[in-house]
Amino acid sequence: MKILKLNFGKRNGLIPAQLIDLVNHCVKGKRVEIGRIDLRDEFSLFEVGKGDAGRVMDAMNSFEADGKNIVVKPAMEKGRHEKNYKRENKHTYTKGYHDKSKKRKKRN
Q: pLDDT at residue 19 above 70?
């Protein structure tokens, strides 16, 4: 499954049933199988089969709803996002160094 991001969310009054109808209205031909749906305030994430992802993006990006262009693009994958974030925002942190071979005296 491939996760796609749609620029409509809860603030636009979108509910899961409408998202399914919207996808199948925009994409002609074979019905699109939709997996998990995650509605956020500003956008929505939904899963489609990897073979359908390109067809869904191409078809939906040529429509508009409520006077607003529909924009569907691949969602950034969590693992890839974290990996890129760590690489781009690399901070060096050095903890205090001490020799573990020396025993510390206990304080009374």
A: yes
